[in-house]
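Q: Hi! First time asking for a complex rather than a single chain. Here are the components, and I think there are two in total. Is that enough to go on?
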Amino acid sequence: MRRAAGLLLAGVLAVALAGCAPETTSGDDVVDQGYQSGDGSTTTWPAAERKGPVELSGEDFSGAAQDVAGWRGDVVVLNTWYAACPPCRAEAPDLVALANDYADQGVHVLGINGTDAAGAAEAFQRQFDVPYPSIADSTGSAIAALQGTVPVNAVPTTVVLDRDGKVAARVLGLVDASTLRTVVEDLLAEGA
Amino acid sequence: MSDDVRDETVRTGAPGRGYRPEGLDDAFSDGAAEAADRGAAHDAATEPASLPTLGPVGWLRWAWRQLTSMRVALLLLMLLAVAAVPGSVFPQRAQDPAKVAQYLEDHPGVGPWLDRVQMFDVYASVWFAAVYLLLFVSLVGCILPRSRQHWRALRGRPPRTPRRFGRFPAQGQGTSAASPRAVVEAAAASMRRGPSWLPFGRTYRVDVHDEGGGTWSASGERGYLRETGNLVFHLALVGLLISVATGQLLHYRGQAIVVQGRGFANAQVDYDTFERGSGFRDDTLVPFTMTLDRFDSRFDPETLQARDFTAHVTLTEPGEQARAETIKVNHPLSAGGAKVYLQGNGYAPDLTVTDAAGEVAFAGPVPFLPQDEVYTSRGVVKVPDVSGGQEQIGIVGYLLPSSQQVGPELFRSVAPELDDPLLVLSVWEGNLGLDTGVPQNVYQLDESRMTQATDDDGRPVTLYVRPGETVQLPDGLGALTWQGTPRYVALDLRHDPALGFVLVFALTALTGLAASLFAPRRRLWVRAAPGGEDGRTVVSAAGLARGDDVGLAPELERVLRDTLARARRGTAPAGPDRPAPPDRPADPTGATASRPAHPSTLDDEPGEPA
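A: Yes, that's all I need. Here is the structure of the assembled complex.
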């Protein structure tokens, strides 16, 4: 009896404990939304604790080669997105404005799109007048390169690299325009 | 409490229950407990007025005894089973959050109350956890003292030979020409050896006693493995629980869809769904990439059952060369500490949508989800980025891999293979609802701000598209081209570092269970006394087993026969030994057998000369 009891207990406990895992998605999520959303949480690292430098390169949707390593000495904003992702669309105007406003201060913005084919991605770029390139990450290697340095947990994820190419900040989910600008300006000030 | 004790007294005092073979004051007879009860009953009888009082420590001790008792453990187990029932009655968040939301909507009265008592998260609820944690404590609280006890028993000696063998379930008698001491030593050797076919299983731990007056006896005990197995089983269960819990803490699991020719990176961003234990750290996710090169499927042409699915992938682990791998349904791929299972597959028609201005507004493969065994698949194309202020376009519909017309404007799929594929689509225009930033289901069109395109008669327009064709969208919205039909696979990635431990503990538990079930626990005694006829030695033997043991009598017989044979070989041949059948005692002065223990095969056969 006790043996049977024990076996049953193990089974039940396995089920029970399986239920203990916390929800990792944010509260607005819907069933089958098909992507991992973030809660907009921002993490910044002080200069001494930054990881990197990030090695990231690939071809953009127009076929031109893009390499983050060529932008050492400048602040770089990386952004994962795809065309049909609601928060990506919501934050796109802010990113575009940021890219335009800080272009003369050497800030580079680089998108990473592992979901869309060129047609959909270029339509998005046309729609939002996106001035910056995006890597066509059809194999996932750009995401993998980024994941090797900083966990990329959601679409969109925005990662800000300092002038040494190290990860200074990460925003999971819809980015707040003023927060991002503050981060970028702090980093610009660091190198000056 | 005193009532209980009196009840106990009546029962212990009842005739036929008080008897207990001598020298057996241990687990075999529960004699100690009875003796204690008798003492307690005596006290209660003489001092009926003073009820014992329990201090706080006493109550704690009492509570602990209750918790670790078998009865409460069974009760908790029942409770656990009952507590799991709501989990199958109400929809659970962990399995189907949509159903929970639906339930809350349908039952505005009781829904929130049920939610408050965690009826939608039964297996993660406080009360469910309370039951299984108590059960866990009960299990541990029971096993540890028992292990300690068994550890002492393991190093103990067999019990002394009882004075009389009369009431034992298995008995045997015989005579031998050898001296009592020689007979007993032969018995000891016989018990120690065991049968040759099982090198370790049947040896007894044996003590030889000189009982004085020329009488010698040997007592042997075996079957320590039984309790060991029992304890190993329970300890392994505890280990199993801890491993499962650890695995839950450190695991991650995610699903991703990968279209042929495209890749997937092991980062949370690339998963469609992802869940992890609270102890799993994001930065330990190994960033391998995997590209789907080709997907093969085979179906039975008659039954349309799937015969074989093979995904040919290129796997690139960090710092390593890319290598070709295959994933089959029951052959997952190991990558970066995770197992990659092939969970599903389907077709992802490669579509291009141009808008009214002729600009490409959308292009790329769109995974259509199979709805039945002939891969009638449903899909949604969202075209948000139309140029020139045009309304956004949404296209929903079905892919029929092997289409067959069954009526006017009525098609169905007859096979899962791409034989004569057809897309049947309806078109919507308006606001897709993507620009507000609110998440939505990628496989559903939010039609609340859209209108369906209709023809001049007001009937909804249905588009029929075949591969390579370009069709004009209604209302001059643009055009749609079907470029090709790549396959896609749905992958399930799981990482659970404790799985190895789970396996080891599960196997250990099984082994322990087998040992505790099949290792017989037996005690045998052999006594040899002088004073038989012709100066022969009178040999008597008895056996006792825990529980019902059909093997006890044959075992006793084997030992007795072997003992006599050994004793005979050890002495000069003085005449045939006469092992006597146990139901006809050879020694009339010895204890009479109260019941025949086994059909006798020990007969008055002539012994062979040594």
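A: Residues 24 and 138 of chain A are 26 Å apart (CA to CA). Let me know if you'd like any chain examined more closely.
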